């Protein structure tokens, strides 16, 4: 650009491991939209987050900041225009909506606690305005990460859900399993202020068989023909909380993945005795309990011991 070379969309990665790793695959934690890897580190009420708990469970854990988020620098002249900022009102709507207050019993601070809300909103930054380009960057950098570390389990949250499918499409031999917590959906859905999933579960292209030349062909196809060879047999858990709107998308997402060829299942927390959770289940007051069904699923589907 202007005769000079600039780095576009690097991805920051931090890792931690127990002294004795007892699990076969490392876990890569991919944060949700507008956030950063810190969402896996602790909870608003000051307890260790899933990253630490997974280390305690014997896993090597890698936490990323997606390109243009957190410690992965964003410059609009290099990455492109930024989407709208994340408002306090949207934070309430997504994570603790008033209409769900009676059933969402695990949110870690009172809705009228302004200081806690300030701290909660603080990590939310800008999102690249081009959702497909952002997902392409994510998938490319995550693929390069797996090229360096080898096979891994990928755990996504919310708007990073499509990254799991794209990464498996690009590196099918290196994704041991995908745990998608409250993923973006439903198939072909649109999220105001973020973008639409024009390729089914992604905004960026994936390789179908038979091939589809563009998103219009994907939308026009018989859903029963939308196979994704790279997902064949891939263990996938779609994890949802009791009160979250995203839970309503999960059955259609699981059906889409199963048609694509994945060994996908819906891990709905109330079915496992974990109640009262919303979209932020990974850091609500019962986050340790919410992790237990995931750990059991990983034991059964992702190689168990080292």
Please, how many domains? 1
- Tell me the β content: 5-15%
Give the strand tally.
Answer: 9
Order of helices and strands: EEHEHHHHEHEEEHEHEH
Q: Numbering strands along the chain, what is their spatial order in the largest sheet?
A: 1-3-2-4-5-8-9
CATH third-level topology = Rossmann fold
| CATH class category name | Alpha Beta
How many helices does DSSP assign? 9
CATH architecture: 3-Layer(aba) Sandwich
> What is the general shape?
globular
Fraction of residues in helix: 25-40%
CATH superfamily label: Alpha/Beta hydrolase fold, catalytic domain
Question: How would you characterize the largest beta sheet?
Answer: 7 strands, mixed
Low confidence ranges: none
| Mean residue pLDDT | 96
Structural class: alpha/beta
CA(first)-CA(last) distance: 47 Å
From the alpha carbons, calculate the radius of gyration and give it in angstroms.
18 Å
Outline the fold blueprint.
Layout: E1 12-16, E2 27-30, H1 50-56, E3 61-65, H2 76-79, H3 88-95, H4 114-121, H5 131-149, E4 152-157, H6 161-170, E5 175-181, E6 190-191, E7 195-196, H7 215-220, E8 235-240, H8 250-260, E9 263-268, H9 287-301
Parallel strand pairs: 2-3, 2-4, 4-5, 5-8, 8-9
Antiparallel strand pairs: 1-3, 6-7
